[in-house]
Amino acid sequence: MNKKGFTLIELMIVVAIIGILAAIAIPQFSAYRVKSYNTKATAELRSAYTACQVYFSTMEGSTTCGIDGMHSQKFFNSSDVTLNITDDKLDTWTAPAKHNASNVTYTIDPNGTVTVTATP
To answer: CA-CA distance, 50 to 23, in Å (whole number)?
Structure first.
């Protein structure tokens, strides 16, 4: 008789290969998720900085830009990024931002330079 199909050994080898690939891929996926969280935090930080710079440029005489100034420029940060303006004055505007799923905090200075200020 001519039997068709896979043997038990062949099936076990395929399952082992899939397991090895999963063991390699899952940690990489987790690292990419954290990296994307950090990228989102820095992107929102830069957007907030830009919104305040536009606010300072368009609102003559304004020397501070807080949440209201950013909202007037149509900037609303997402609920998963914590962004606090620590200094809202024109020449010293700074703010930290952190994604809720990440342990890294970024800060932007008055020149628009983003730096890491806290890591685990």
So the answer is: 42
Average pLDDT, the chain: 90
Q: Report pTM.
A: 0.77
Q: In what order do the strands lie in the sheet with 105-108?
A: 81-83, 95-99, 105-108, 114-118
Question: Which long-range contacts (C-beta less than 8 Å, at least 24 apart) are formed by 78-84?
Answer: 78/40, 78/44, 80/40, 81/40, 81/41, 81/44, 83/44, 83/45, 83/48
Does residue 104 surpass a pLDDT of 90?
Answer: yes
Q: Report H helices in 1-120.
A: 8-58, 67-72
Distance CA 76, CA 13 (A): 52
Q: For residue range 63-75, what is the model confidence (pLDDT) as tens digits?
A: 898 888 888 888 8
> CA dist 106 to 20, 51, 84, 101, Å?
36, 18, 11, 14
C-alpha–C-alpha distance, residues 106 and 97, integer Å: 5
